[in-house]
Structure formats: structure tokens, C-alpha cells
Design a protein that fits this description.
The complex is a heterodimer of chains A (109) and B (115).
Chain A lengths: L3 E3 L2 E5 L4 E6 L6 E7 L6 E7 L5 E3 L2 E6 L4 E6 L8 E8 L6 E2 L3 E6 L1
Parallel strand pairs in A: 2-11
Antiparallel strand pairs in A: 1-3, 3-8, 4-5, 4-9, 6-7, 7-8, 9-10, 9-11
Chain B lengths: L4 E3 L2 E4 L5 E6 L6 E7 L6 E7 L14 E5 L5 E5 L8 E8 L9 E2 L3 E5 L1
Parallel strand pairs in B: 2-10
Antiparallel strand pairs in B: 1-3, 3-7, 4-5, 4-8, 6-7, 8-9, 8-10
Classes of the chains: A mainly beta (109), B mainly beta (115).
Chain lengths: 109, 115
């Protein structure tokens, strides 16, 4: 069951903040976040586990709300290098990930 | 150390031909995944190898698609009788151990174009 990401796309000016959400219809065990720049492979950002702590990668942090079956990615004081498509991947146990459709983030100077 | 490598980086083939795509995972990684990404789309799961267990083939779109992993390392994805809708970037990823808690490292992908 594919997670739903929102928004599908967002445009920010450098220095602005953004939130990307990833929602599931089933109880989650783990959520992965990856970033893919145009023409490149996805790169791992962080994993959030059920019952685990909020994670951080540079000025990007993420939370995992088990009750809402949702994870949120917070991009603070965005930099040009943050541009790309962000994917969440979810698992319901110790198994493969199912990826969302992605959120395209564009940062303009 | 070396990351995940894939070959070829680009493949153009005629409709109806068979193609083989190769993936070399990171040494020591027991889990290997294949994904397909169509232009501007997300990551579509194809198949998952986890150590010596039977692979999870639940994402293969048709019986024209098959994959094997020899000796727990290199994997080959084979597409028989290619169709134009098979055109996409095929990504391989590996992780240290199988399952959700472990980060996946992606290769650069093979861009397949079926004419």
C-alpha cells in the first residue's frame, strides 16, 4: 500500500521553511526519507522507527506520529542544495519498503 | 569503499528484444532490491533478495521480467520481449541487512529505452 505524500510540489525562496508529509493507511513500523536530485540516484537522509526519536540530518529533521500513521519532514532555512525530489518509504514490519510518489522541492535564490 | 554499481548505464533496444541489466551491490550487503522509475515518477518496487531466502517477486509487472542473484552478490534483471512501456530507469539498491530498519544504498541506474 503506497504512502501518500503531500504536497506534490513546493517552491521556496532560499531561507524559507517547508514541511513534507507522508501518510499511510496502515500502522507503520519504519519510515525512510530519501532525496533524489535530477538525473541522480536517491540518497538516504534518515530512518524513523516506531517508538523512536525524532531524527535530524543537517538542518532537516523528521518526526513520526504513530497515532496518525504519518511522518513529517521539516526543512529549516532551506538552501539551494536542498532542491530535489523527496521520497518517503514505509514498511509495516521487517520487510521491503514501499515508496511514495515524491515531493518535488525547488529552492530559488 | 565502492558503492552500488550498475551496468550498462544506458541501453537502447528494439521492441521484442531481450535485455539484461546488472547490479553489483556493496560488498557484504545481504539484501538487494530492484526498482523501476519512469520519467518523473516514483520508485516502483520490482523484486527483493534477502540473503538465502526465496526472493520477494511481488512487484514484477509480468512474466517477461525475471531476476537472479548469484552467490549472494551480483544480480541480473532480465526483461524478455521488451515493450515500449518498459522504457524507464532501473535502479538497484542494497542494504546491510534486509528489512525496513536498514538504509538502502542506490546505484546510478540503467536507463532503458525501447524503440
Amino acid at each position: 500500500q503506497q504512502p501518500v505524500q503531500s504536497p506534490q510540489a513546493v517552491i521556496l525562496r532560499e531561507g524559507e521553511d517547508a514541511v513534507i508529509n507522508c501518510s499511510s493507511s496502515k500502522a507503520l513500523y519504519s519510515v525512510h526519507w530519501y532525496r533524489q536530485k535530477h538525473g541522480e540516484a536517491p540518497v538516504f537522509l534518515m530512518i524513523l522507527l516506531k517508538g523512536g526519536e525524532q531524527m535530524r540530518h543537517e538542518k532537516i529533521s523528521a518526526s513520526f506520529n504513530e497515532k496518525k500513521q504519518q511522518s513529517s519532514l521539516y526543512l529549516t532555512a532551506s538552501q539551494l542544495s536542498y532542491s530535489g525530489t523527496y521520497f518517503c518509504g514505509t514498511s509495516f514490519g521487517n520487510e521491503k519498503l514501499t515508496f511514495g510518489t515524491g515531493t518535488r522541492l525547488t529552492i530559488i535564490p | 569503499g565502492a558503492g552500488v554499481s550498475q551496468s550498462p548505464s544506458n541501453k537502447v533496444t528494439e521492441k521484442g528484444k531481450d535485455v539484461e541489466l546488472r547490479c553489483d551491490p556493496i560488498s557484504g550487503h545481504t539484501a538487494l532490491y530492484w526498482y523501476r522509475q519512469s520519467l518523473g515518477q516514483g520508485l516502483e518496487f520490482l523484486i527483493y533478495f534477502q540473503g538465502n531466502s526465496a526472493p520477494d517477486k511481488s512487484g514484477l509487472p509480468s512474466d517477461r521480467f525475471s531476476a537472479e542473484r548469484t552467490g549472494g552478490s551480483v544480480s541480473t534483471l532480465t526483461i524478455q520481449r521488451t515493450q515500449q512501456e518498459d522504457s524507464a530507469v532501473y535502479l538497484c539498491a542494497s542494504s546491510r541487512l534486509p528489512g525496513g530498519p536498514y538504509e538502502q544504498y542506490f546505484g546510478p541506474g540503467t536507463r532503458l529505452t525501447v524503440t
